[in-house]
Design goal:
The protein contains 16 helices and 15 strands. The chain has about 500 residues and is of the alpha/beta class. Residues about 10-25, about 35-85 and about 220-240 have low confidence and may be disordered. The structure holds guanosine-5'-triphosphate and magnesium ion (MG). Magnesium ion binds near residues 299, 300, 319, 320 and 340.
């Protein structure tokens, strides 16, 4: 008989949270509509401030820190009644391993553990089973599902998280066997996104993705209900497998569709504002740098270091969901923008890929892609490939120049780091902690930015003073300016946009 493979590493410290999966369809709809994530996220372990202010962190964790809850001794001030509903989530992870190698499957499960921790769960154990295809009925084979049930009981776990997307019927069947709530990787990621989205657009996009995920799953709850009505005793059924009757489901479904249509309309309305900002940047010819990379690679830390922006840095996956754009100056005083983006992960739920396409489009417009790779990670090359795979889908990214940033060099093994540097020739190793490599990175970015190349001599009327500051920001003076009667005389290298603006201004 095939044996389980157990992950050797200890995978987590304990965290607290609310139930990650709704007990009924009703509850789920209410949760999503109230904008409440269904699992808590907290990062009490990280308090470093070297990467810049992390002012959002307090905000994000304000209602979530529950240290001392077990003893009741050290409850924080300001903790309100909501905490009474907080339940410690103790999870067991399971995955199956078919055509991949065992170590890939283990990595995937470790990543799932990190995701579960980010959602605030305590990971008790992780198991992978070798089988070619998932069992159509219970995902795991029947025997293994029963073994899992025993393990869950022994550990007093209250949730099983499966490392792939389950069909609604598989989820229910597995729940029936293990006797606790079962959620899949997709639901987990959606949950984290729901917690972390901050902007109105981000929230709307996540809600839309959650409803899209939920819609086909309402039927599952309904069927389970009729099964029970058909004489089965509810005894062994899991929490999530009961639900409202068919009529209620129809109502819910209609409500969800109406809500989704409204969200789509809202999102469509938000698009133009962003598009306008973007075309404004294009018009003024300010070059742009987009920071991309796998989740938790250190993107926000780097942005903070390079620009002094107070972007949330957290040892959690998907800490950043909303793009942040900052203005930076080169050593010569030319201006460019730098934007943070949402991190990537393998098997990103399709609903979310669609939802975040607009966010990624920001990366598609960039002149330079700063691709951050955690050089201390076990499989940095695999992460680079996963990011490239997603970027290939985003129009425009192929034209941008890419700089691979090997981050967290203070943690990496020097031998691994050297191997990575030779594997990725255009790469710079940096540490936000020690500051190593940041200077080199700055000059690499400056070299990669488009340079002003058009030489121009002109006199700018005093009424067009803003053009002069644009020359300072985006061009390069070749001689000191001269103040003449008709205006300011300049001899400079300028960009194409600037050249046409100057021609227009000086034509009249
Ligand atoms: N030791 C060390 N830790 C770092 C360094 N850079 C980032 N970190 C840590 O790595 C974790 C993730 O950093 P973030 O900057 O939030 O990563 P991110 O890529 O923006 O993550 P998401 O927004 O979640 O996708 C945090 O705990 C940081 O403190 C570094 O150079 N050295
Ligand atoms: Mg971030």
């Amino acid at each position: 008989m095939r044996k389980w493979i157990r992950l050797k590493e200890h995978m987590t410290q304990s965290q607290h949270n609310t139930p990650a999966s709704p007990a009924t369809a009703h509850g789920a709809v209410a949760d999503i509509r109230s904008g409440r994530g269904t699992a808590l996220q907290a990062d009490p372990a990280y308090f470093g401030d070297w990467a810049g202010d992390s002012f959002q962190r307090d905000e994000r964790t304000a209602l979530q820190r529950v240290e001392g809850l077990e003893t009741g001794a050290e409850r924080e001030e300001g903790v309100d009644i909501e905490y009474r509903q907080v339940r410690l989530e103790r999870v067991v992870l399971v995955g199956i391993w078919g055509d991949s190698t065992q170590s890939q499957a283990e990595d995937s499960l470790r990543e799932l553990a990190a995701l579960a921790e980010t959602a605030g769960s305590e990971v008790l154990d992780g198991l992978i089973q070798h089988r070619d295809t998932p069992d159509p009925s219970t995902y795991l084979g029947k025997g293994k599902a029963h073994e899992l049930a025993d393990l869950v009981a022994t550990l007093s776990a209250d949730t099983v998280i499966v490392d792939s997307e389950l069909a609604p019927s598989q989820r229910r069947a597995l729940e029936d066997v293990v006797g606790v709530k079962v959620i899949d990787r997709t639901a987990l990621i959606l949950d984290i996104f729901a917690r972390h989205a901050k902007s109105r657009e981000g929230k709307a996009q996540v809600e839309l993705a959650q409803l899209e995920y939920l819609l086909p799953r309402l039927r599952g709850w309904g069927e389970s209900m009729s099964r029970q009505a058909g004489g089965r005793v509810a005894g062994g059924a899991g929490i999530g497998s009961r639900g409202p009757g068919e009529t209620q489901i129809e109502l819910d479904r209609r409500r969800i569709r109406t809500r989704m249509a409204k969200l789509r309309r809202d999102i469509a309305k938000m698009g133009p504002a962003r598009e306008q900002q973007r075309s404004e940047r294009r018009r003024t010819g300010v070059p742009s740098v987009a920071v991309v990379g796998y989740t938790n690679a250190g993107k926000s830390s780097l942005l903070n270091k390079l620009t002094g922006a107070g972007v949330l840095v957290e040892n959690a996956l998907f800490a950043t969901l909303d793009p942040t754009v900052r203005r930076v100056k080169t050593s010569e005083g030319r201006e460019y923008t730098m934007s943070d983006t949402v991190g990537f992960v393998r098997q990103l739920p399709t609903q979310l890929v669609e939802a975040f396409r607009s966010t990624l489009e920001e990366a598609g417009e960039a002149d330079v892609l700063l691709h951050v790779v955690d050089s201390s990670h076990e499989d940095p090359v695999g992460q680079v490939e996963a990011v490239h795979e997603v970027l290939r889908e985003v129009p425009g990214t192929a034209e941008a120049r890419e700089i691979i940033v090997l981050s967290k060099s203070d943690l990496a093994d020097p031998v691994d780091l050297a191997a990575l540097r030779s594997r990725f020739p255009r790469s710079v190793a940096v540490s936000c902690l020690t500051g190593e490599g940041l200077g080199e990175l700055r000059s690499t970015i400056e070299e990669a930015l488009p340079h002003p190349t058009i030489e121009m001599t002109t006199v700018i009327p005093y009424t067009d003073g803003s053009l002069l500051s644009r020359i300072h920001d985006a061009g390069k003076l070749l001689e000191p300016v001269q103040y003449r009667e008709e205006g300011t005389w300049v001899h400079a290298l300028v960009t194409q946009e600037l050249e046409s603006a100057l021609r227009e201004a000086t034509a009249q």
